[in-house]
Design goal:
The chain has helices at residues 47-64, 85-92, and strands at residues 2-5, 20-23, 26-32, 72-79, 103-108, 118-125. It is an alpha+beta fold. A six-stranded mixed sheet has the order 1-2-3-6-4-5, covered by helices on one side. Helix 1 (47-64) packs parallel to helix 2. One of its GO terms (cellular component) is cytosol.
Length: 127
Amino acid sequence: MKKIIKTNNAPAPIGPYNQAILTGDTLYISGQIAINPVDSQLVQDSIKEETEQVFRNLKAILEAAEMTFENVVKSSIFISDMNNFNEINEVYSKYFNEETAPARETVEVANLPKFVNVEISMIAVKG
């Protein structure tokens, strides 16, 4: 049985999908981009600020499912330019302890929704 996770503290989906799905103890979070849920505007002042907004959105969804970044077991990062990797990774490292960080891949792609620079999806597990 799946449960739809939805919060007004993260941007509404821009297509036919949900912010996250909880099935059993596993949460699947859809890719998040840097849309500010308050005004629906993209945050793209800098790659660091864009990545911070992505993490604020991810945090809001985790909280809606009564989880934290400690529950995350897998991250997928999609970036439009691998030259931004170090700055994205710098922000990423603020949310995870190196010893308990989740598995992860980072992939450079040709384009992302709304032509953003970074999109991150996650899988988290309760317990």
